Amino acid sequence: MDTAVPLRRNVAFQLLWIGGAVSQVGSELTRLAMPLLVLALTGSPGWAGVVAGARIVASIVAQLPAGVLVDRWDRRRTLIAAHSGQTLAVAVLGALILTDQVAIWHLIAAGVVEGVCWAFVGPARTTAIRGVVPVEQLPSAYAQEEARNHAARLAGPPLGALLYGFGRAVPFVADALTYLVAMICAVAAKVPRRPAGQQPDAEQPPAARTGMVREVLEAVGWLWRQRGLRAVVMVVMMLNLLGSAYLLPLIVLVGERGGTTFNTGAVMAATGIGGLAGALLSERVGKLLPPGRLTVVFSTVFGVSIMAMALPFGSWWPMAPLILFSLGTPAFNVVISVVITRMTPEAMLGRVDAVMSTAGFGLAPLGPVLGGVLAGVLGGTASVAVIGGALLLTGVAAGLNGDLRRFTGEAQALV
Fold first, then answer.
1. Residue pLDDT, tens place only, 276-317
2. CB–CB of 299/395 below 8 Å?
3. Residue 180 near residue 27 (C-beta atoms within 8 A)
4. pLDDT per residue as tens digits for the range 218-269
5. What gap in Å lies between CA 183 and CA 198, rounded to an integer?
6. What is the C-alpha to C-alpha distance for residues 27 and 23, in angstroms, rounded to an integer?
7. Closest CA to 340 of 329, 352, 328
8. CA dihedral for 19, 24, 29, 33, sign (positive or negative)
9. Is the pLDDT of residue 203 over 50?
10. What are phi and psi of 379, to 5 degrees?
11. How far is residue 169's CA from residue 36's CA, in Å, rounded to a whole number?
12. d(CA 15, CA 18)
């Protein structure tokens, strides 16, 4: 790999990025179209939650085995196979919708297949990026990844609503095509099949092979010994739990202040606006503070921003604090992604990525439940204030953790 080649001319990475960008836009198309379809078929918001939950649960359950298998298997073929599975699942679903034969169990099954495939795509992409991008270019690579994420979240839902208006099957057919593009890009990128010097699993002597549980525990043990990174994971767990809890109370808050549906959508879009702008600044922001202190600052600003949304300044006001903390989200994500990719021994990168994702997002599905309960009991404004206060306390607790404050992104010895 030639470190002198600028990232924009790194063909393998740019192919991976294009495939990821196109497929994420496709996923955002169906994120809105799927509940609309479920409501049209059943009239039940509960079933919409079941379909969405099936995908999340499948992804979480498959995450750790997927991380182990990504480290064992040919990584290029694994990424291609995962995208192929996504393509097939959504294409079949689109065909069923088009022929008016779709049933609720088809939607659940498609969600499960997609969730399992996503569990493989995550660590496979992480190892692929590590394999094709020089270490000194990782911040730029992950900044480009963040820009993709926020742009897709901003453009995908309205485009999905537009396509759904042309026909129920249209967003799903479009999504299948985007997964096909991602698969073709993965084939063309020709990422390394496995870390340098590592034999394929089938060629390793029996004594060199270990059980799946033992391999997961090896990654967990390595992560546990990295005290600073371990503290980051604990903070991220709380940020994801509370960050997924404030959305429903925010919707209620806007409604309490007389906001319209358009008003609510515009407020929610603020995270995409701030995130996209922040992605362009993420490399510069990431250089200002070491990872540990950045974690403390980000979690504190997150809490203050959510609390500020409760101030009585009208239905449009929450956009301002949402944009504020969203500006810092890409920098935080980029810094932590780079730290993990640099610190982790390449032979266990898939497993560590899976462990980090499972730990970091394990509590996130409880967030909407927490937010709904609080909004029902306290109302939107008070609930937002409570959740913001909990985030602020998370920031304070992070600041009191010496291991986190001193964390610079260097790995500790494997002892």
1. 778 777 777 777 888 899 999 999 999 999 999 999 898 889
2. yes
3. no
4. 888 888 888 888 899 899 989 988 887 887 788 788 888 887 766 776 777 7
5. 25
6. 6
7. 352
8. positive
9. no
10. 90, 170
11. 12
12. 5
Q: Please, which pLDDT band fits residue 202 given cuts at 50, 70 and 90? A: very low
pTM: 0.72
What would the pLDDT profile of 84-110 be if each residue is shown by its tens digit? 999 999 999 999 999 889 888 899 899
Residue range 125-129: average pLDDT? 86
